[in-house]
Amino acid sequence: MRALLALIVLLSAGTLTPSGAFAATQAVAPAETPALMAARRLYAKARAGPQGEGAAAAINARWNFATQLVENSRFAEGEIEFRAIEAILLPRPDTDDRNLIAIQARIANAQLGQEHWAEAAETALPAYQRALALYGPDHATTHDLRMSMGASLARLERYAESEPYVRAGFDYLRRTGGDQDAADIAATLALIYNRLNRPDEARAVVRLVEGADPIGRLINVAARADNPADEAAAWRGVLDALPAGDERRSEMEVKLAFALAMSASSSNPEPAREAAARMRVLLAYAQANALPELAREAHAVLGMALGSLEEEDAAAGEEAMTIALDRLETARRELGEDHRDTVSRRLYYAMVAASQQQAAIGLPELDRVEAWVGAHPGAFDNQNLVFISMTRALLLGAQGDTRGAYRAMARTTGAMQGVALEQIDQSRKAYLDRWGGLFQAQVKWAWRYAATLAGTPLEAPASVPAGTAGPVAD
Fold first, then answer.
1. Among candidates 376, 381, 347, 383, which has minimal Cα distance to 364?
2. Is the whole model's pTM more than 0.85, yes or no?
3. What are the pLDDT digits (tens) for 277-312?
4. Nearest partner of 142 among 134, 150, 154, 132, judged by Cα
5. What is the 3-state secondary structure (H, E, C) of 279-303?
6. Rounded to 10 degrees, what is the CA torsion of 154, 157, 161, 166?
7. Which DSSP symbol is given to 244?
8. How far is CA 356 from its chain centroid?
9. Lower CB count within 10 Å: N or C terminus of the chain?
C-alpha cells in the first residue's frame, strides 16, 4: 500500500507529467516480467469466453497484454496486438475516435521502439491531426503523438520538419509545469538547432532549462535524477549550496523530504523517518510564520512519510489518518463540500483508510467521491478514476466482499498500465518500477478473487475511461 499512498501525493504535487515518445527508444525493460506473464494469462482467459476476442473484457485484456509486451521491449509483438485491436474496432460504427487515436499512439510508440522511423511518422501524423482537432494542443495524447512525429523525423534527419513538433512539445512541458521532461527534450531540441545551423537557439534552449546560475544547474540535476535515492542526494546538494536565508530553502526541503519518502522501503524505512522529522520542523516553521501554502505541502508529505512507516509503527498509521482527515476538514471549511480540491482530499482520506483496511471509514467517503464524479463528468482525470476503482477494490476486499472487489479490480487492472505509460517518463526507471509493482499486485488480487469465485462468470466492466487503458467494446 506504500505505492498507493505515494502515487496520489505524486499527482497532487505535480511530479508526474505526460511524457514524450522519445522514452520509447530509451527504456530498457527485462525480457519477461510477472506482469507480462499475468497479462498473457488474463488475455487467454478472457479470449476463451463465449464472446471471443471481440468481447469488451477480451479487448481490455488484450490492450493490457500489448502494453506489457511493449514494456518488455517486445515492440514487434506489441504492435501486432495493438493492430489486432484496431482491426476489431475500426469496422464498428459506434467506436469512439478517442480509442482509435489512443491505439494509433501506441502503435507509433511500438514502431519507434523497433526503429521504424518512417512507419512511426506515417502512423502518428493522422492520429496527431485528429487528436489536435479533438483535444487541442495542450493534452497528453496530443503531446505524445507530437513527440512521436518529432522523434521519428529527427531520426530520419529531417530536422527542419522535426523542429516544429519538438519545439511545441518542449514549450508545452515548460508551460504546464513539466520542467524535468522539458529538460530531457532540451538536449534533442538543441541538437536539432545545431544541425540546422542555429547555434544561438540551441544555447538559448539549454539556458532555459539549466539556468544561468550554478544553483539553477544543481536544481536541474536534482529534478532529472533517475531514482528517488539519487534525487534525495541531489536535493541535499542543493540545500548545502543555498545560503541560509535563501527563500528557496523551504521549497527544497519539501522536495528532499518527498524524495526521501519515495526512497523508503520495508527493509529500509530510515528515509521515511528522516522525511517525517524534516516535515515536522518545516510544518512548525510554516505555522509560526503564517505560511499556509507551505504548511499544506509539508502536511501532505508528512502524511506520505508516515504512511510509509505504518508497517512498523501503528501510531504512524494513525497519525497519517489524522493528517488526511485534517486536510479534508480544512478543505471543507475553506472551499466547501463541492469543490474539486475537497473531493480530491476526500479520495486521499479514503485511500489512507484502505491502506489500513478500515472499510467502515473508507467506503462512505468513497461513495461521496463517486457521487460527485458522476455529477461532474470530466472533472477528474483518468488517473484519479483509476485510484477510485483501486481503492474500492481494497476496501471491499477488507470487508470480505470478494465478488465486489473482483469487479472493482477488473475495472482497475485494465486501465492501470495505460495510464502509467501516459503519466511517467520511462527514463525515470525507479518511478516506473513502482507503478509496475503496484500493477503486479493488482493482477495477483484479480487472480485471487477469480479463484475464490470458482470460475463464476462476471460481467465485463461497464466502461474504461477513453484514452487511457484502451477501448471497451459493446
1. 347
2. no
3. 998 899 889 889 988 888 878 887 887 788 777 666
4. 132
5. HHHHHHHHHHCCCHHHHHHHHHHHH
6. 20
7. T
8. 23
9. C
